[in-house]
Amino acid sequence: MSEQWSTEAAEQAVQHVTSWYTEQIRKRQRSGEGPEVLQALKEGLAACAADLETLQEGGEDAAEIGARYAALAQELEGQ
Predict the structure, then answer these.
(1) Is the distance from CB of 71 to CB of 13 less than 8 angstroms?
(2) I want to staple 45 with a disulfide (CB 3.0 to 4.6 A). Which of 14, 21, 26, 60 is the partner?
């Protein structure tokens, strides 16, 4: 049984992960983290931007994106 997600709720889930990536990039830049780690974080941030744009254009199922980002948020915050 798939979970119901409104476009707004899915956008909020993407924004939550976007904030996590942004915070991590700032922290890692200040700490002098290596370029590989920063690049991976920037790629994650770019994926968020692309998915947010897709949601705003109505191009993909909000439930799929919302569920994916809810799971990703749990994974990232557990690190």
Answers:
(1) no
(2) 21
